[in-house]
Structure prediction request, 449 residues.
Amino acid sequence: MNKTELQQQDRKHLLHPFTDFHDLGRQGTRVITRAEGAYITDIDGHRMLDGMSGLWCCNLGYSRREISDAIYEQLNTLPFYNSFFQCTTAPAIELADALAEVTPAAINNVFFTGSGSEANDTNLRIIRRFWDLQDRPEKRIVISRKNGYHGSTIAGASLGGMSGMHKQFQPLDYIEHVQQPYWFAEGGDMSPEEFGIYAARTLDEKIQELGPENVAAFIAEPIQGAGGVVIPPETYWPEVRKVLGQYDILLVMDEVIFGFGRTGAWFGADYYGMKPDLMTFAKAVTNGYFPLGGTLVNDRVAEVIKSKGGEFTHGYTYSAHPAACMAGLATINILRNEKIIDTVRDVTGPYLAKRWAELADHPIVGEARSLGMVGALELVKDKPSRARFDEDCTAGAMCRDLSIKNGLVMRATGDTMIIAPPLIITTEQVDELVEKAWRALDGTAAALA
Ligand SMILES: *Cc1c(COP(=O)(O)O)cnc(C)c1O
Prediction:
């Protein structure tokens, strides 16, 4: 099929995720056909630096034969077997073993799923089982944060705090949401440090209001990704640690974006010095080459689930799919052997931080923040008051379109431009990224003037 035919048939037959079908019908889809290294190419031959690593997953870029070969060899040896009914496969065991090595010391168990959303469903099942097995059936409520993203199944979307999603289904009634640590949008007159403490204290207030005996867990992303790369003020996580230290409440860190090196540490929990009971992972674990997710479980929780009798009635057909596990193993091996996470921490991360900060000088940028291999730009009409251009976030959408046209994939979350480039990006490519972002900002400013 040629481009026009593909677009026509797409409109006819394909329901896309998170898409306004009316808009899509009018504009047509961009057909991506090839990718290599940190670049993708569309059907018109337009080559773009992929500032989003696919969808936060292709951390090693698109050209790793070791991963595709590992998948192919596995498919030719044992393409599928399940891990139900006392069965297992070597890839599942080897990946579980490798994960125990790269995760924090107290985390030594994993439950595999097919995606991050499924893994957050699994978290709810494990949390409930954990408290029930200890005769604490009243511990039911899970606290999450407004504007968090935890996937799109009923559990994932209920845990998430996106009001636009909640309007389109009936969220689970045992999930409560507290303040997100988004200083730029919601910090008002507080300093970022004050606001970090304030946001963490809303968790304490909510626990007190509900009664700590009724609260099972708190779930959060280390840094909110889909919510707009919300990097919390430095005071936030230490204060959350203090709050949770007062109560017997599990901490779940959703590491689907920040796991496997994006902060310059293996996990966001390592970066922030947190000790989660459970960690959700997906996306970058296979470098996006094969669907895989899971829940990493610490010894305290795993001990209870494993040692008390009775079947844990939960699992997915594709839990620990052997080809997915081989993709995960190959990815972890590359991250380790090539010391890619150290490079992000010591070289490319600091370089991105320096260059990205220069974008704050642009007339329509109210804040340029970054950490490791993520960054965000807040587009504003007025810098001191942080006032936006309009309610409809036209600036963000415009800037994204211009950026793509210029050969850089940036994403817009409202009027916040976000990037999450592959961890293998070079300093020269960081220069290219910043230069292209600046040009997109110029174009946006000119169009809005
Ligand atoms: C993408 C994402 C998920 C959902 O993962 P899927 O594989 O799309 O189901 C969950 N949590 C976070 C933080 C994510 O970014």
Notes: The longest helix spans residues 427-448. Residues 115-117, 149-151, 221, 225-226, 254, 256-257, 282-283, 293 surround pyridoxal-5'-phosphate (CB under 6 Å). Residues 66-337 form a domain with the Aspartate Aminotransferase; domain 2 fold (CATH 3.40.640.10).
